[in-house]
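Example record

The entry below shows one chain as it appears in the dataset: sequence first, then structure tokens.
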Amino acid sequence: MATTQTLPADPITLDKIYNEILDGHRVWLDKVHEAFNKQCETIQAEAEEKLKTVDENDKETRQKILDDQKQQLDKVLFELKQTVNKASKETMTRLEEIEQKKDELESAIIL
């Protein structure tokens, strides 16, 4: 997401870019959230299928399936957090650059 580009010297254009970045990040978050939910549903469905094949009295095997499911879900959650944190930091950096440019423009106008 991070890009180094020269920002325009126009506050209106800067506002437009700022809003586009925010909107793009929101759309991306929605897609990541949807993909995360699908992964969780798949993991859940696989565990349920495995549990159907195991006798209800076989507590040890059933617990192992549930433990494996939890481990997979924890891994997916960890990956989600890493991905979202990295992208959010990059987005915030870009937004801060725009705010800084707007502040510079305002200072130049005041002088």
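Notes for this example: Residues 11-106 form one domain. The chain has one domain: 11-106.
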